[in-house]
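Write out the 3D structure for:
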Amino acid sequence: MIIGVTGGMGCGKSTVARMCEAAGFKRIDTDAIVREQVLADPAVQAELRARWGGAVFAPNGSVDRARVAERIFADPAERHWLEALVHPRVYAAWRERLATDPAGRWVIEVPLLFEQGLENWFDFILCVACSPDQQLNRLEQRGLPRPLAGQRITQQLPLAHKMEHSDFVLWNDGSVDFLQRQLDRVLSALPAA
């Protein structure tokens, strides 16, 4: 069984994916794949350097994700170019991991699940949602100024669309315990194997 966890920025996808992992699912974090594998790949770095020069690299030679984000959220064409470069490598990495246990219970955290048309990859899709104020507050707490947070949120599909097209929705405006109880209900409704 493969569950895709999606939702808006700052809604709690990672928290829910970790809760699934604690419940016995094998977890794949696509953001971690991007950070630890894809952006560390010399071929990807060469493409970034050819496109944007040294401006998106930190002094130690690693990709400065904040500088990349500034570029791609300011220009949709740049975002599409980067997605075309990065996403096939992410999908290949997660297919490789899934192949290690094809009959296993997996949870994959996929922020852009609907934006990339990945619905058919999953047995069930779980959307984590919260109110717009809560979402903006959480992103601010992470150090993202409110205007930038708002700009980035508007570049994703509306949360209502994700909620409508998911199999399950968890509402994350309350406590972690409340979120856990919702998830427990969802997991108990899923097939055992």
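The chain has nine helices and five strands.
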